[in-house]
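FORM 12-B: Structure-to-Sequence Request
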């Protein structure tokens, strides 16, 4: 079977294992079932039957949004990994590892994604002073969101950047609303006055 070199080690892709199975086992059946799929987490089981007898099983686990591909195909990825693991457990394509090339690549992608998330600065929004300010902030935020409702994400981001941009007197650096959904600046909620200025500036940009 053809192999793929990943970081100096040879792995067999799942489709090569399936091809080998079809060419060498006429009475083989591959069955897959979703064990669970809740909150964007899928667990899949694959079962290999030969002559109507179960000879191997394999499981896989995938999280939605854990990689770029999983954003749209985490269930399909999970099934592929489960099938690859099942065939590997039966001894097909395990020259160097039971894990398939597909499984290893996916694991590497998830590690890289997690690494990026860990490196990303985590900001905590500052709570408003009181209920009156909280309500005032909500009102202005709703006005801003409503005003931008017909804009694309890119248009909204650019408009908010222009409308909220100002020089922070403490840092002397130019700052602006960088979270277009929560309307925060580096994780902090702007004051009512700053949000009102942003809203007025938005209307002037129209």
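FORM 12-B RESPONSE
SEQUENCE OUT:
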């Amino acid at each position: 079977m053809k192999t793929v070199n990943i970081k100096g080690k040879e792995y067999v892709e799942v489709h090569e294992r399936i091809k080998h199975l079809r060419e060498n086992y006429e009475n083989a059946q591959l069955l897959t079932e979703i064990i669970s799929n809740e909150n964007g987490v899928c667990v899949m089981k694959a079962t290999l039957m030969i002559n109507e007898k179960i000879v191997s099983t394999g499981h896989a686990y995938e999280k939605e949004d854990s990689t770029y591909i999983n954003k749209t195909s985490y269930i399909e990825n999970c099934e592929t990994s489960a099938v690859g693991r099942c065939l590997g457990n039966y001894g097909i394509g395990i020259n160097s590892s039971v894990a398939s090339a597909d499984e290893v690549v996916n694991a590497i992608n998830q590690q890289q994604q997690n690494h990026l998330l860990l490196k990303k600065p985590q900001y905590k929004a500052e709570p408003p002073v009181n209920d009156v300010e909280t309500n005032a902030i909500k009102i202005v935020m709703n006005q801003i969101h409503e005003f931008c409702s017909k804009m694309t994400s890119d248009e909204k981001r650019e408009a908010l950047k222009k409308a909220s941009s100002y020089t922070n007197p403490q840092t002397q650096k130019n700052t602006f609303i960088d979270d277009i959904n929560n309307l925060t600046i580096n994780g902090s909620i702007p004051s009512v006055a700053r949000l009102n200025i942003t809203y007025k500036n938005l209307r002037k940009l129209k």
